[in-house]
Amino acid sequence: MSAILPPAERLWWKHPLDRVEGTWIVISFIWCMIMFAMMVGWHIWGKQNLSTETYRTTPELFTTKAQAVVDKYTVRTETFKNLAGIDEKIPVVAPPPGSDVYLVARLWNFWPIIELEQDKTYRLHITSLDYNHGFSLQPANINIQIVPGFEHVVKVTPNKAGTYSLVCNEYCGIMHHTMVSRLYVKQGGTP
Amino acid sequence: MSATTYRTCPRSGLQFESNAETLMVVNAVTAVVALLVGGILAIGVVLTRWPAVHWLAADTFYMVLTAHGIDMLIFWVIFFEIAVLYFASSTLLRCRLATPRIAWLGFALMLIGAVMNNLTVFQGGSSVMMTSYVPMMASPYFYAGLILFAVGALIGCFVFFGTLVVAKRDKTYQGSVPLVTFGAIVAAIIAVFTIASGAIILIPTFFLSIGLIDQVDPLIYRTIWWAFGHSSQQINVAAHISIWYAVAAIAFGAKPMSERVSRGAFLLYILFLQLASAHHLLADPGVSTAWKVVNTSYFMYFAVLASMIHGLTIPGAIEVAQRAKGYNNGLFEWLRKAPWGNPVFSGMFISLIGFGFLGGISGVMMGTEQLNMIIHNTIYVPGHFHATVVVGTTLTFMALTYFLIPVLFKREMIHPGLAKLQPYMFGLSMYFFCLVMMGAGTLGVPRRHWDLSFAGAAMAYEWPGAAYLMMGLVGIGGVAAITGGGLYIYITVGSLLWGKKLDGGKPSAHFTPIPVSAPSAAAQSYGSAGFAAPGTFVLAMVFLVSFVLYYFINWKYLSQVWGLS
């Protein structure tokens, strides 16, 4: 007769459904199907779907490819004081639209700084050289997991020019909270 | 095994077998100790993330956060759940507990494991967070502690299954097991799956930590670890929903609106709830779109459907019971006249509403493949799971404790006035805490992060002022919630130590089987428009509207970010 006693009706599965329950189940079911359709439909009509293109990689292999792009497309360097208080030059890389861009995440920085053009699409390759890291683009608030050993190729199309920050949002050790970098997006056409 | 005794509690009519009773007491008390430790650690976490206070040093903060997560999410809830499993089998089915000595062994392993893990974390070299993603390594004792704990919990589950067999064999009940026991079976089945996953990944990681093997794949680790980490929260869902049904039965004499619907919904949990661990890999490389879509939707949201059903049938059952008692005016008299001063009920109801509106809606939103990108690893995530695990599970366990103090612990509650207040204080401040955390998360504030200001970093990001405001409110809400949690511990421990002893009922060498109850008339003459629970239906529609709006607001937000393909 109650939830803490065995059901009084031996054949409880034949007990009729109340109308409240029946109606709610139908409504809930429809809503669940709508949500399911949204997720699938966004792959067809939506513009924000995370790529699944992934390759196994090693720190050496990835660093070599990243270095090649840095050597080829560095437009300037920016100088920052690192945690030890020493000036450090970080290359700003501006590869042509449509090309492959490499971003290294490691303890406890991102390398290099990337400069993209608005409304152009790039193939952004991301990996970590050591632990798990997070790719958290602010203030756009796009968040991607960076897993060591895996090269994740994400096609990105920035839709707004400006200076973005790249925050590591996966705990990666004692200086995790200092792992932050930049990413520039400039207006199309202007240098 | 025949040496055991049974007593029938004069206040509740429940029958307790002495072995099961002692084990329930010991497991529940240990759980509360874990909650106390986790609660003290919460002070450190909250006061550090409150930007204006920023209390602990970075290394201490990460250590405290690691221990807080493990103590709360694993030790507090699972110790309590073992007590719940013994209650749902031995007490509700009125039979002896199977193999009490092995149950004690299980408890001992859990205790040793929990202590070992905690001591290791407090030594400092194992601040790897609860998730301990490889290749970041903790001390071998960190993993060994978790493994011992898991083996102990697994033994507890099998003692529970064995007890079901004892009840069946001794014919202590007729027909089917009660719905609450059914829910506990679901929880235990999920627990076996969970613990097996934990073993599959933690044992190799333990070998890695002692140098026996030289690699554990980071992505495989994440995949299987979450089959343990998220599933352990699904044990909680099944357990606390069973307790909601139990509280509805205890406080109102409510019977389930339909056994078929409620049990069917529990069955959907067994089939689909586990898939939810995929939610943690939505922003990961290497997993396919089809895999994400199937798993993250719990196979077309059938587990969400199940939760939405429970969310209706539990208040619905209460409404039907209240209307039968004559609280039949308008849509909501049944709810207005509910025993709001009884912490068993108020705790359960605050839990149910918060779990649905805050935990449920946010969980489905962030579990959507694409929407996950705008919240992954932000503080929105702890905002969500504090709404599910704290408002949902912890508050429910608190409410159940208020029922158990006189019934199981045979003590009169000290400060009943304070106990009346506690679920509101804890539950509502937790609502607030979760909401502002989610607010900060939508602004991008990361979880597990010591310093919002990035002091010393070369290219510090300047968060919007609203993020600082939200994190300040997180601090205030957190302190209020911790105070509410402290009240619970004070009332519970105080009642056990100083509460007036109550008569427990005479021990007898024999059990009394559950009498067969007469089938009740199915026809109901109350309610309106053929609806037995119209008020609940209106509440459910309010829930649905909130759900739909919030869901689509987030799609709108997503549509404005960078193109990603």
Walk me through what this model shows.
The complex is a heterodimer of chains A (191) and B (565). With 191 residues, chain A is α+β, with helices and mostly antiparallel strands. Chain A folds into two domains: 1-49, no CATH class; 54-186, Cupredoxins -  blue copper proteins (Immunoglobulin-like). Helices cover 22% and strands 38% of the residues of chain A. Chain A has two helices and twelve strands; from the N terminus they run αβαβββββββββββ. In chain A, the strands form two sheets. Chain A has a seven-stranded mixed β-sheet. The radius of gyration of chain A is 25 Å and the shape is elongated. Chain B has 565 residues and is mostly helical. Chain B has a single domain, classed as Cytochrome C Oxidase, Chain A (Up-down Bundle), CATH 1.20.210.10. Chain B contains 15 helices and three strands. Chain B has helices at 18-49, 58-91, 100-122, 140-169, 179-209, 218-252, 259-272, 289-296, 298-324, 333-336, 343-366, 380-407, 416-442, 465-498, 534-559; strands at residues 6-8, 15-17, 563-564. In chain B, strands 1-2 form a two-stranded antiparallel sheet. In chain B, helix 8 runs parallel beside helix 9 (298-324) and helix 11 runs parallel beside helix 15 (534-559). Chain B is globular, with a radius of gyration of 23 Å. Chain B starts with 5 loop residues before the first strand and ends with a strand. The interface between A and B is large, with 96 and 118 residues.
